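Suppose you are handed only these lines of text.
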Amino acid sequence: MEKTFVMLKPDAVQRGLVGRITARMEQKGLKLLAVKMLQVDRELAAEHYSEHKGKPFYEELVRFITSGPVIAMVWEGKNAVAVVRRIMGSTDPQEAALGTIRGDYALFTGNNVVHGSDSPASAQREIALFFSAEEIVSYKKTDQRWLYGQQDE
Ligand code: IDP
Ligand code: MG
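From them, the structure of the protein bound to inosine-5'-diphosphate can be written out as follows.
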């Protein structure tokens, strides 16, 4: 089953949106495999956002993501990467559809409350950056056969 990396950004923590944002992944049926709160330092921010180095918004992005604690999570499910991207909505919250996290909870691209991996390859890279293998919990969840019918493995 596919895994994806999700990070609730400093604005989500400071604005008290952690529970409401997490609930959206949970109620969709995705399975939580790992979660931790941490303060991202400049080195980790640079590694995580290396694809954006040199872009005009890069410095602001690094400053923002290191401005307070974040919640890092690993979620699993069928097509989890794409499913989470749809639940998050467009990068620019002004464009994001209502009903998506960014559409409902944000107003500005720089402070768009949530990060989700953009491909299975990015997910692998980002999960490894934030979590050790032992921190990703493997367990059976009783709702899986109700979510996937017979395809529950
Ligand atoms: P994504 O988070 O939807 O994958 P990316 O293009 O990967 O979007 O950009 C990473 C993050 O950088 C965005 O979530 C947003 O916080 C920030 N960002 C992207 N473009 C801009 C911009 O034009 N101005 C300010 N911040 C931006
Ligand atoms: Mg991205």
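What can we learn from it? The first helix runs from residue 10 to 14. The chain has one domain: 2-137.
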